[in-house]
Design brief:
- By secondary structure, the protein is an alpha+beta fold.
- About 40% of the residues lie in helices and about 20% in strands.
- The protein is built from eleven helices and twelve strands.
- It has a five-stranded antiparallel beta sheet.
- Helix 7 runs antiparallel to helix 8 and helix 8 crosses helix 11.
- The two termini are about 40 Å apart.
């Protein structure tokens, strides 16, 4: 998602940094809340909300930090406009401080901004402006075989762009695994593609697991990569075989990942291949 606040009078914009690599222009009303913060956070926009039986479980908001937040979390002073995720009691979620500690370790591994702060029920991090990779991919629809039809109809230029993003994502996942972490919830909606600068970011490490915390390390690593491999197969169904990873590994897992359409998928990949 892009963060953009427009006004007819461009000179009224006030620049504010979202993270070490991105900044945006704020309208005066928001800028004034940074200069003169209220006691409590101000919600600019609710970005996500999860409910169960009409009861709130998790809510993600883009906020301007209030005085209480600024005093409790020093990094909020540098990034007063940031992402705040609130876990409600009925979610039975582990303390948000655990998520903070994991992202603090993972941030330098993946060149992510460090988290801003956390308490028992609230996690804060820099906002990464961009588009979820799930929205950039035309794939992931049901029934499974439909994705092969989409691959045939999608412009090769778009498929090539998606392939480059998948290759970058694969490298980041492998880097994370080598450092002793699995993501634990690695779907394309948890991957943000920034357009300025062009960069891919993994987000949401609430379910991340350290290697020493599990007896199912290999299985968890495979789970992290399964969504990448599925999309790699569908892209190759439109382009042909790719020798760069995740191409070869995706082909090795085709029968398991696409049980209803792997034969048709392999036929399309072979038909488009020039190797």
């Amino acid at each position: 998602m892009f963060l953009k606040f427009k006004t007819k009078k461009q000179h009224l914009f006030v620049k504010i940094r979202l993270n070490p690599k991105q900044q945006v222009d704020l309208i005066p009303e928001f800028a004034d809340l940074i200069k003169h913060p209220p006691d409590k956070d101000v919600i600019i926009r609710t970005l996500s909300r999860k409910l169960a039986n009409d009861q709130p479980l998790i809510q993600g908001d883009l906020v301007i930090a209030g005085k209480d937040t600024l005093s409790e979390h020093p990094r909020a002073v540098q990034y007063p406009v940031h992402f705040r995720k609130t876990y409600y009691p009925v979610s039975f979620h582990p303390p948000a401080t655990l998520e903070y500690n994991k992202q603090e370790e993972i941030a330098p591994i993946l060149d992510l901004p460090p988290p801003i702060g956390a308490d028992t029920n609230c996690f804060r991090s820099c906002f990464l402006s961009g588009i979820p990779l799930a929205k950039l991919s035309p794939f992931g629809v049901d029934p499974e075989v439909t994705n092969l039809q989409i691959a045939e109809k999608t412009d090769p230029g778009k498929l090539i762009g998606l392939w480059k993003l998948l290759a970058d994502l694969y490298k980041q996942i492998e880097q994370l695994h080598k450092a002793g972490f699995v993501h634990g919830d690695l779907f394309l909606h948890n991957v943000i593609v920034s357009t300025s600068p062009v960069k891919l970011y993994l987000i949401d490490f609430a379910l991340a697991v350290r290697k020493e915390e599990t007896d199912n390390w290999d299985k968890l690593c495979k789970n992290d990569l399964s969504e990448v491999y599925r999309h790699a197969l569908w892209v190759q169904a439109g382009l042909g075989i790719q020798t760069e990873e995740p191409g070869p590994s995706a082909l090795d897992t085709a029968e398991k990942l696409l049980p209803d359409s792997y034969s048709a998928c392999l036929e399309k990949i072979d038909r488009h291949s020039l190797l």
